[in-house]
Amino acid sequence: MGPKRCAVASEESLMRIFTVPEAPDSTLSKIELEISSNLAGFLNENIAAIEKPLHEIEKDFQDAVLPEEPMFVSDYAQDIMEQLVAHSVHTAAPSFIGHMTSALPHFVLPLSKLMVGLNQNLVKIETSKAFTPLERQVLGMMHHLAYGNDEQFYDKWMHSAKTSLGAFCSGGTIANITALWIARNRLLKADGEFKGIAAQGMLAGMLHYGYKGLAVLVSDRGHYSLGKAADILGLGRENFIGIATDENNKVDVEKMRETAHQLQAKGIKVLALVGVAGTTETGNIDPLNDMADLSAELGCYFHVDAAWGGATLLSDNNRHLLAGIERADSITIDAHKQMYVPMGAGLVLFKDPAAADAIEHHAEYILRKGSKDLGSHTLEGSRPGMAMLVHACMRVIGRKGYEMLIDKGIDKARYFAELIKNDPDFELISEPELCLLTYRYVPKQIQRAIAQADEAERIEIYAALNRFTASMQKRQRETGRSFVSRTRLTPAQYDHQPTVVFRVVLANPLTSNSILKDILAEQKALAKTDPIFKKYLTKYI
Ligand SMILES: *Cc1c(COP(=O)(O)O)cnc(C)c1O
């Protein structure tokens, strides 16, 4: 790159960036044209396949001093192509099957540009107008999908100034916090002299109601966002109690019941049960009906974290897997996971339209009482019009289209599980219930060595396998052809010892069966040259 041309800060150049579009032959316009006409090609060509180490990349982002002088847009575009785009992650690649982020439908690109151009703020009607009814409709349609109330219900509540059927937000974390915020405020509500926790705080609430503590019970496989919720809601992370799961990674409701009774005997009130519908690590679904029974028994709130798995409701063929979800007081669903919406689209649905009263807040200059402003029921303040993209996907893909996508993902996971099971050098660790599974590479000779080893030796092999699995996952990522993620589980087949496993999510519709075969073949090849394998595991072969 030659020396930078120098732009000058002037009133005229400032006015230009607000009024004059980029010329058709400018660098940025060319980028725009390419991403509009061929996004996949653009990403394939411009994201470097081979990883550059992070400390190298950091050198391009070293300067702590904000630039004094302006820069030409084209020069900037050139810079980010080399420094940022090239070293971003190709999440849309069909062989990138490690995370919950996958390819996007093409039409969301121009639509997101329109959304940014309109720059609406959903906190209040004054800055969003039609976007507010649209967002309320999105919440209504998702509410109907989950709870299936009748037409009258939605006629009455969907656009009601008094309530909201849910809260749209940036993602599952905020959705979960919002749900537990409501649970907390409903439990410690105003009563006689006591003005409620929102007004008087946790301590006053506990003293008034005579509780020695509050607890939330969730599966050991609960998402870490729930811990954050416990922290900021003043419940305390230790009072967020993880309950053991069965061999299918589903929470053991009997153990949950025992724990709840033990806590209540100590004067600790169970505030809520949280069911997970699609755990982040293994994609399994808790027994939601049993949990709903237990929460009725305990008289506590029941929230379902379906951030990832909630989209399964879109498939008539598979929604039975989430049976009981309709009994939850609230449900978290991320549209930016299995609904193929770009990042920044989560929502929480409330069974009872009056639920959000518990967190309602008003301000004089905005969010006046009786207004339809969505901001009076949300944790976040200013929010973009992301609901438009959810609306677009719902309209363009339709429930039937989503059903095909969801079913295809689950079928593909089953196919991949079969490939793994039929190959003696791989081991399936968790069966796919949705489109997520975990597995590891353990050649049959090592499996035999484990079977014959004494306990000390077995622990040694387990440790070596863990290090090897982690090493392989990293090497596969760095090679850049494909990507699987990894996590740590405690499966029965490894004596409940911490076990590092590969984790794949098969949501990308462009991931073909032959890509899946290639990924296993690539892993076999990588294993042959793995330094950790050579050092610690060849002796068992
Ligand atoms: C992804 C996920 C979350 C968190 O959602 P974000 O959108 O990342 O904030 C919460 N719970 C589960 C089960 C998830 O999979």
User: What is the CATH class of the largest domain?
Assistant: Alpha Beta
What binds here, in terms of ligands, is: pyridoxal-5'-phosphate
Lateral strand order in the biggest sheet: 1-7-6-5-4-2-3
Helix content: 40-55%
| Overall number of strands | 11
The residue ranges in which pLDDT falls below 50 over 5 or more consecutive positions are none
User: Which word captures the global form?
Assistant: globular
Level-2 CATH architecture of the largest domain: 3-Layer(aba) Sandwich
Under CATH, the homologous superfamily of the largest domain reads Type I PLP-dependent aspartate aminotransferase-like (Major domain)
The largest β sheet comes out as: 7 strands, mixed
Rg on CA atoms, Å: 26 Å
| Average pLDDT rating | 94
How many structural domains are formed by the residues?
3
Helix/strand class? alpha/beta
Assign the CATH topology of the largest domain: Aspartate Aminotransferase, domain 2
Note the gap between the termini.
Answer: 52 Å
Q: What kind of oligomer do you see?
A: single chain
Q: What is the H/E order?
A: HHHHHHHHEHHEHEHEHEEEHEEHHEEHH
Beta-strand content bin: 5-15%
Protein name: Pyridoxal-dependent aspartate 1-decarboxylase
Modified residues (N6-(pyridoxal phosphate)lysine): 337
Pfam family, one: Pyridoxal_deC
GO molecular function: carboxy-lyase activity; pyridoxal phosphate binding
